[in-house]
Amino acid sequence: xxxxxxxCGLTLLLLAxxxxxxxxxxxxxxxxxxxxxxxxxTRVYGINSLGDMVGSYVDSAGVTHGxxxxxxxxxxxxxxxxxNSLCSGINTSRTIVGxxxxxxGISRGFMYQNxxxxxxxxxxxxxxxxxxxxxDGVVVGNFVDSSGVQHGFRRSGKxxxxxxxxxxxxxxxxxxxxxxxxxxxxxxxxxxxxxxVYSGGKFKTVDVPGATGSYAHGIDTxxxxxxxxxxxxxxxxxxxxxxxxxxxxDDPKGTDGTxxxxxxDSKVIVGVYHTNGGNTAEGFKAKY
Length: 288
Known about the structure:
mainly beta; disordered N terminus; four-stranded antiparallel beta sheet; Neuraminidase
């Protein structure tokens, strides 16, 4: 599952770093559930400025599909080169990025545009995921190199740029806005998960205060960021960094965790909440 961190097999030790972040009562979040009719499992990972959503769902037969939801209409987005498609990001022209599993069960990044699929991964990648796309068609994601190290990437046109947070043992790129600001997740020397914004060749750490792990995901035009973060018990919660201030939240139905993934410019956040001991997942939309 994409929510939280997908470090492709890395075992990550999360250490407590202080008191937990507290939500601001002046910012209210209103939640609604996003569920594909008849699906066993629904997950929402991205939303564009039009309110179109992408994610994945598991049908009644147990088959996983990528998902595009426009209004109330759901369309399966299945890469013909493999199985278990997952859609992570979408821009206003409905260009979608995500990943699928090839015939060897290896994750491969893709772009879906005008009805056609294109593989998106740097040359020589052992595996890859495309996570975000802006309105200029610039794609960000992550890949594992031949030595097994995970890196973030930015693709503009057909040109790839590797992105690594200095001092990290592993880096991932998740979201990108129109200004080209990119959200990063990375592992520090102590094994903690931290978050940064990459812009103009510089990195700025933007961890959720008090979290044991900060997982930055979507970023809007204003530079506001949505996160998943973990407390000392390992439970996931959502957070919003708006104008430099942090606001935490949980879907009231998410008794076993809230994972926030996407954000648009209309003050809407999307993600996934878990119930039933973490075995049941549903998508959510939160307005603030």
